[in-house]
Amino acid sequence: MTAACVRTAVIPAAGLGTRVLPATKAVPKELLTVVDRPAIQWVVEEAVAAGIDEIVIVTSPHKKTIEDHFAQMTDLESVLEEKGESELLARVRQVNELANVRFVSQASPLGLGHAISMAAPLVGDEPFAVLLPDDLFPDEGRTVRRMIDVAESVGESVVSLTEAVGEEITKYGCAGYSMRDGAVVVVDRLVEKPVFERAPSNLRINGRYVLTPDIFDKLACTEPGRGGEIQITDALALQIGDRGLRGLVVDDVGFDTGSRADWLRANVELSLRGTDGSAVAAMLEAALESNGF
Ligand code: UTP
């Protein structure tokens, strides 16, 4: 595998988003705003920063607005042009010029693994990245880039891992490992949402993958697992017994915008890091004081 091989990022966005209902009743979870743009735009920008310019978004028939967000809107552009709103116009145009964004449909939410398999015809026989759009890593693509480097040197799929705190591990895919060399582990076991006492480690998968293309064959023979869904974790477990699987342990836990508390944390922290940081800090201080904190 060479660095240039990873040209495509698959972004699965066809799930139901039940954890953040009712916000996601009509608005796709992936379009919930984080500071000034939809969560999925942050993730496309991350992939581009990692050097990837082919994006495949897996959507559902109920989520056409995701396609709208990345399409050119000539009417809107004309209005902005007429009004002389050149800065806004540039920001609107930048969204549809970010990358080559294509879409495939997942008719029913049969699981993350199933969603990824829908992208097979557009990915072809080459390694690719998967970025879950409800996990934000605003790190200029560094995590994905490091994962590509590991995948390139060992020729195996790589999952990004974070150390879970306490019983948090029971909510995620958990990776057991046989060897660790710095931040890289040789994964020897994967368990989706383990019982705390039987979790093979405290390392949880955190929403970034670099996958070798044989994963599509593994997905094709993966039966529905936990929750009746076709799980990517089960297909990755098949790769462990075949060509092997690595994990990259990262310190950055990112933001899980599919959970209400973390969506709020993403907005606060990313606002503080942005150009309005000082104004937001002052606003937070005033809000804390006036509410008796
Ligand atoms: P999640 O399990 O976090 O998303 O999947 P969900 O199912 O939408 O959320 P909840 O648990 O009901 O709140 C991670 C990503 O995978 C996509 C989701 O859209 C999300 O971005 N996904 C999940 C699919 O594309 N298809 C599926 O069948 C399942």
Descriptive account of the structure:
36% of the residues lie in helices and 23% in strands. The chain has one domain (3-258): Spore Coat Polysaccharide Biosynthesis Protein SpsA, Chain A (Alpha-Beta Complex), CATH 3.90.550.10. It has eleven helices and 13 strands. It is of the alpha/beta class and 293 residues long. 40% of the residues are buried. α5 crosses α9 and α10 (260-273) crosses α11. The strands form three sheets. It has a nine-stranded mixed beta sheet, sandwiched between helices. A two-stranded antiparallel ribbon has the order 2-3. A two-stranded antiparallel sheet has the order 7-13. Uridine 5'-triphosphate binds next to α5.
List keywords for this structure.
single chain, 293 residues, alpha/beta, Spore Coat Polysaccharide Biosynthesis Protein SpsA, Chain A, nine-stranded mixed beta sheet, two-stranded antiparallel sheet, 13 strands, binds uridine 5'-triphosphate
List the helices and strands and how they pair.
Elements: E1 8-12, E2 33-34, E3 37-38, H1 39-49, E4 54-59, H2 64-70, H3 74-82, H4 86-97, E5 100-105, H5 112-118, H6 120-123, E6 128-131, E7 135-136, H7 142-154, E8 157-163, E9 173-181, E10 184-192, E11 203-211, H8 215-220, H9 232-240, E12 245-249, E13 255-256, H10 260-273, H11 277-290
Parallel strand pairs: 1-4, 1-6, 4-5, 8-12
Antiparallel strand pairs: 2-3, 6-11, 7-13, 8-11, 9-10, 10-12
Helix pairs in contact: 5-9, 10-11
Bound molecules: uridine 5'-triphosphate (UTP).
Name the CATH superfamily classification: Spore Coat Polysaccharide Biosynthesis Protein SpsA, Chain A
| Overall tally of structural domains | 1
Shape: globular
- CATH class, named Alpha Beta
Order of adjacent strands in the largest pleated sheet: 5-4-1-6-11-8-12-10-9
- Spell out the helices and strands N to C: EEEHEHHHEHHEEHEEEEHHEEHH
Bound molecules: uridine 5'-triphosphate
CATH architecture: Alpha-Beta Complex
Helix/strand-derived category reads alpha/beta
Q: How much is the average pLDDT?
A: 94
Extended strand count: 13
Sketch the major β-sheet. Answer: 9 strands, mixed
What fold name goes in the CATH topology slot? Spore Coat Polysaccharide Biosynthesis Protein SpsA, Chain A
Q: Hey, roughly how much beta strand do the residues contain?
A: 15-25%
Rg value: 20 Å
Our measurement of the CA-to-CA distance between the termini, rounded to an integer number of angstroms, reads 54 Å
Contiguous uncertain segments of 5+ residues: none
